[in-house]
Amino acid sequence: MKILLTGFYPPTPFPDADFLEEIGKALLAEGHEVTVVGPRTSAAQETRPKVIPLATTWGWKEVWKIAKTAMREKADVVALVYVYYLGDGHPAITFLPWMLKKMGYQGKVVTIIENETGFARRRFVPVTAALSVMRRVSSHGAFSEHYGSLLSSDRIVCLSLDHANVVSQRGNVSTENFVTLPPCSTFVMAPFTKESRREGRRLLGACEGDVLITFFGYLRKDKRVEMLIEAADKLRDRKNLKFVIAGAESTLNTGYLDSLKSLTAELDLQDRVIFTGDYPAGSVLGSLWLHGSDICVLPMMGSVNLNSSSLAAALRHGLPTIVTEYMSASNRLDAEHVQAITDTVVDADSFTLSQAIARLVDDMPKQDRLRKAALAAAEDLYAPSAYAKALTDFSSWDFGVQSAKLKSETKEIPLAA
């Protein structure tokens, strides 16, 4: 099939650009012909995939050119990775499905909506007002004040079930054409070897026999990292437990990191709690920290969505993971799969979390089951091949995960000290 992809693309320094690149690679690997229409900063290439650097502002003329390119290339599928800051919030790109239909395009249109924000309605009041009228006089779901004509696409991909529900409610459409897929992970992985594990433990200052309990992700108040530090205080008699706080402070919560360090000092845990700081973009340092860890703890507020980059990183490294709220399922995971890949502590506080950590540390068979289930789920959930299928297989809406129990039998996990 001929696939035309559009959205941010490298070297644009956004994760959305890496996301689109991974989708393109997966489609190529399956034998499809791929053309990418990206920003003018993209380097024109004759190699596969073919890249057409076209858009600068993602305004009306440029989006019209994208539609004309799809017609000229005779694309079977046009896929857009949409984020609200594409074109600095300009609404033009949200009219791409409508423009294609007006041109007589006969192929399929797929929109991957990365967040539920929609375009900057307050900056484009006339467009918002026009969309309100068009929504009332057009067929159901053709137009939306938040998403232009995006919801009229043949398939809409959202990154979590909660996300899909918000989009459908704002657009006043059913989820009939929706597919829920977490974003394929672009996290740079160190090799899955004993050497990577030894190097990760060396970097974290672990001694022989230490068990490393790790939080991984941006540090924000809603991540409730202080609960993990307080749990460490309740486990101070277990001298072999070390607690790793891996990640940088979010710009949304400046001062939070200082408060965590102050709490650590107040509880006299400086020799038990390790703050790593950030790691350089594109490096394997974060991956080495995770390879060197033994258990991941994500004490986040609210349910853990499958599009959580922290959860994705933990699962891809085969880490037994404790979450403090139920994970939200999607149409890719049923309740049995959700329960199989994490250990859940409901209504957690520092005491119940410390108990859960102690139980898991002592239960090696359960750790082994969670490791295998994590790797099996990660292979299905975060592999770019799932997106390749979503963009090309319109005969099926079933993107279910294969049985973690069956796949786990073939997984080898290095557990060198």
Extended strand count = 13
Structural class based on helices, strands and sheet pairing? alpha/beta
- Bin the strand percentage: 15-25%
Q: Spatial order of the strands in the main sheet?
A: 3-2-1-4-5-6-7
From the alpha carbons, calculate the radius of gyration and give it in angstroms: 23 Å
What would your notes on this structure say?
- Strands 3-2-1-4-5-6-7 form a seven-stranded parallel beta sheet, sandwiched between helices.
- The relative contact order is 0.11.
- It is an alpha/beta fold and 417 residues long.
- Helix content is 38%, strand content 15%.
- The protein is elongated and about 70 Å long.
- α8 links the parallel β9 and β10.
- The N and C termini lie far apart (48 Å).
- The C terminus is likely disordered.
- The protein contains 15 helices and 13 strands.
- α1 packs across α14, α7 packs across α12 and α10 crosses α13.
Topology of this structure?
Elements: E1 2-6, H1 15-29, E2 33-39, E3 50-55, H2 60-72, E4 77-82, H3 96-102, E5 108-113, H4 125-137, E6 155-158, H5 161-171, E7 178-180, H6 194-203, E8 211-216, H7 225-234, E9 241-246, H8 256-266, E10 273-277, H9 285-292, E11 295-298, H10 309-316, E12 321-323, H11 335-341, E13 343-344, H12 350-362, H13 364-381, H14 384-392, H15 404-408
Parallel strand pairs: 1-2, 1-4, 2-3, 4-5, 5-6, 6-7, 8-9, 8-11, 9-10, 11-12, 12-13
Could you write a compact summary of the structure shown?
The protein has 15 helices and 13 strands.
Q: Descriptors for this entry?
A:
13 strands; 417 residues; disordered C terminus; 15% strand; alpha/beta
